[in-house]
Amino acid sequence: MPLIMFLVASGWSFFIGIGSILAAEAMTVFVRRPWLRRRIVFLLLLGVVLIALSSTPLPYLYYALAGAVTAAWGLNEWKGAEGSALRRRALRILLPVGWLVGVGLEVPRFFQPEVSVPAGTAIHVIGDSISAGVGSKGEHTWPGVLAELSGVEVVNHAVPGATLSDAMRQVQVLEGEGAFVILEIGGNDQFGGATSAEYERDMEALLQATAALNRRLVMFEIPLLPFGNGYGLAQRRLAAKYGVPLIPKHVLAAVITTAGATVDGLHLSPMGHRMLAEAVFSILRFESGVSE
Predict the structure, then answer these.
(1) pTM for this structure?
(2) How many whole angstroms separate alpha carbon 214 and alpha carbon 243?
(3) Cα torsion at 245, 234, 198, 130 (round to 10°)?
(4) How far apart are CA 244 and CA 270, in angstroms?
(5) Residue range 28-49: average pLDDT?
(6) 85-125, pLDDT tens digit by residue?
(7) What is the number of alpha carbons within 13 Å of residue 98 lying toward its C-beta?
(8) Contact predicate 105/117, CB 8 Å
(9) How far lies 200's CA from each of 133, 195, 217, 232, in Å?
(10) For the chain, first and last CA: distance in Å?
(11) Cα dist. 51→5, 180, 239, 268 in Å?
(12) Which of 2, 86, 93, 112 has the highest count of CB atoms within 10 angstroms of its CB?
């Protein structure tokens, strides 16, 4: 189950789903045996389900076109000799091309950014209970571990249960110009049932307020629930608009789904806090000369 959760939340199931669809096509092209028909249908349906569950935030138009080609291909192959040979050849080309376009669009999102932290600059964390912890006595959260790893002051403003609109109060305590801010926020909006339009509105307001006074930002991409594409599209769109590097969602998903890294399936244990701190530290480049 943790593996399935990771594959879905991180977006890896998108690539597995495409692989399943392409495997179905390969079977129709290279293995011409009638008894394989059910297996081909199974692979095709499995691929579609895995792609849908991944909530990979690619444009809806792309999904509409790729889905239409996939449906047409599946129907034509099912008809067998009754189907159009010319249409079959065209769809056998369009199917892999269409889905490989999606691979090309999504793969760059899996690479971690390298973010420079100016010398002498404190790091501020805006977030929810993933960063604030669950309030247990002596809890050592990942911002504190990051401070130890980097030797840089890390100020943790995170509040348990915070939403995007709540985070505005965290931003208001930031002072001066040029602060470096890590945003780990937005999961509670998704879990709480906010619409993607509300999510986008509140995130834009937060980014506007946080980016003021020449602040430098980096933001966690939130792992998405099944069929939560709209939240991911909004976050990526606004990150591009405000020039905010995104820490790929597989980073946080990997921590949350690792055995022993949480206390309740979501909130981090000491092991989880250290894992997340090390992941964040690996993308930061400290101009003061602190190295990994």
Answers:
(1) 0.91
(2) 12
(3) -40
(4) 28
(5) 81
(6) 788 889 999 999 999 999 999 999 999 999 999 988 999 99
(7) 22
(8) no
(9) 25, 9, 17, 10
(10) 33
(11) 14, 36, 23, 28
(12) 112
